[in-house]
Structure formats: structure tokens, C-alpha cells
């Protein structure tokens, strides 16, 4: 409980700081990209074109990063509703296979009896994608991604969505810091360290929780425990009340 509070406070502080920064930085990037566009349009010199392309790519990376920062520092309320979890996973499967590449097999094991949860559909999809991309990065030589839905074993008011890979796994010191904003073990330009902290923040806001089970050399399973909802009866207000204990 204490570490949860600390986690929430850390995220709030970083969120406030980054929200403002990301916004200003994005405006600067717009100016940079605009000027690069002009340079590209006005030169016939291949060397200049190439240099402009390089700068353009760097600016694009920067713009992706600021989008992630803005998503992370979001202050607006989530649109929570009753979401058919299995449907969401099936609807996202095309997107998932596109982002994973050919050497990763996707398996799904969906519990037909327990699909409705309290969630923001779009944000949960973003979270699922974030987890899948982490899984991909952990399986450079290929492997299997398994997405499972099942009733929570210890709490029947909850449904567990787990995203499991057969990748490198995480040592205990990485697990301990994985939810920290900006913690990454990936090379610069590849990792931002915001994926898992974003997933954590979103799921907590939906009244759920996130758990990591991982073993080095075996793989990782990220488990989202979400609140079960009775189809159609979940109101935004009820979900909001439950989310108040989480990160807002
Ligand atoms: P990023 O992916 O940008 O590094 P994240 O917050 O998503 O940021 O992840 C933080 C770190 O947690 C990663 O750098 C990686 O070391 C570790 N990690 C996350 N997911 C996995 C996974 N599925 N397998 C192995 N390590 C992982």
C-alpha cells in the first residue's frame, strides 16, 4: 500500500512536469519539421536532401516520444464502460500481428464465460499493444505470444487478462523498477521507459491492477486484473468511483 502510494505520487509528479514539457516541445518540433520540409522542397543537392531526411527522422522520433509523454501525463478522465474483453482482443488481432512480425506466433486462450470488464476500450487496446511490443522486443529470435482471459483465481469480481511471451525474461531488479516512468533497459531511441508505467496508470484508473511474473530465460507474463462488469449495466460514474483509489 505504501509503495503503491509512492508509485502514484511519483507518476503524478512526473506527469505534471512532462505534460507541460511535451506540449511545448511538440510545438518546437512542428517548427523544425516545417523548415525541413522547405529545405527538402528547395534543394536539388542529394547530400542536402539526405541530411534533411536524417533530421526529419530524428524529429519524427521526437514527436513519437512527445505523443507518449502526453498520453502518460493525461489528465482527462477515461471513458470507462462495459467492454467485451474477448471481442477487444479479437478486434485488435490484426493490429497485433502487424506489429509483431512473422517470427512471432500469436495464441489466444479466451474464456467465453467471463468477458465483460470495466475499461476504456481505446486505452485498453493501447495497453495491449504496448505489452505486445514489449514482448516482441524480448523475443528478437521469435517466439510465441499468448493472450489469455480468465476469471481471477482469488477474486471472482475480477477478470485476468494476461500477455505472456517466451522471451528473455526480467531479472528481479528490472521487475522492481519496470513500472517506474523512464526506466528502460533498451538503447536510446528504442525505449522510452513509459510503456509499462502508462499501462499501470491506465489500468489503475480503471480500478484494476497489474502484476508481473517473469523468469530470466523463460519469458514474461504481464497480468492485468480488471473489474468484472455486467454487460450494459456499468455506468461511467460507478467506474469513476472505483477508480478514485487509483492514479488519476
Ligand atoms: P520500454 O519498453 O520503452 O523500455 P517499458 O516501461 O515498457 O519501457 O518497459 C521497461 C523495461 O521493462 C524494459 O526496458 C524491459 O527491460 C522490461 N520489460 C518490459 N516488458 C518486458 C518483457 N515482456 N520481457 C522482458 N522485459 C520486459
From TrEMBL:
Organism: Bradyrhizobium cosmicum
Highest taxon above the source species: Bacteria
Domain Histidine kinase as annotated: residue spans: 20-230
Name of the featured protein: histidine kinase
Residues shown, of full length: 167 to 414 of 536
Amino acid at each position: 500500500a505504501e509503495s503503491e502510494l509512492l508509485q502514484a505520487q511519483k507518476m503524478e509528479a512526473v506527469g505534471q512536469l512532462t505534460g507541460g514539457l511535451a506540449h511545448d516541445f511538440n510545438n518546437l518540433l512542428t517548427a523544425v519539421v516545417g523548415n525541413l520540409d522547405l529545405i527538402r522542397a528547395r534543394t536539388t543537392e542529394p547530400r542536402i536532401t539526405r541530411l534533411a531526411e536524417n533530421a526529419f527522422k530524428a524529429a519524427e522520433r521526437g514527436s513519437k516520444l512527445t505523443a507518449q509523454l502526453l498520453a502518460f501525463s493525461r489528465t482527462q478522465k477515461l471513458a470507462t464502460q462495459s467492454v467485451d474483453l474477448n471481442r477487444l482482443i479479437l478486434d485488435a488481432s490484426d493490429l497485433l500481428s502487424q506489429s509483431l512480425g512473422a517470427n512471432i506466433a500469436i495464441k489466444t486462450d479466451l474464456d467465453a464465460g467471463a468477458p465483460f470488464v470495466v475499461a476504456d476500450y481505446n486505452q485498453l487496446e493501447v495497453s495491449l499493444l504496448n505489452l505486445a511490443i514489449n514482448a516482441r522486443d524480448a523475443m528478437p529470435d521469435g517466439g510465441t505470444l499468448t493472450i489469455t482471459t480468465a476469471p481471477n483465481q482469488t477474486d471472482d469480481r475480477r477478470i485476468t487478462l494476461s500477455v505472456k511471451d517466451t522471451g528473455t525474461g526480467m531479472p528481479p531488479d528490472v521487475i522492481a523498477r519496470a513500472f517506474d516512468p523512464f526506466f528502460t533497459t533498451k538503447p536510446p531511441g528504442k525505449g522510452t521507459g513509459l510503456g509499462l508505467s502508462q499501462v499501470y496508470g491506465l489500468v489503475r484508473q480503471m480500478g484494476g491492477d497489474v502484476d508481473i511474473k517473469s523468469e530470466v530465460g523463460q519469458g514474461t507474463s504481464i497480468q492485468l486484473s480488471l473489474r468484472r462488469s455486467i454487460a450494459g449495466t456499468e455506468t461511467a460514474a460507478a467506474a469513476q468511483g472505483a477508480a478514485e483509489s487509483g492514479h488519476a
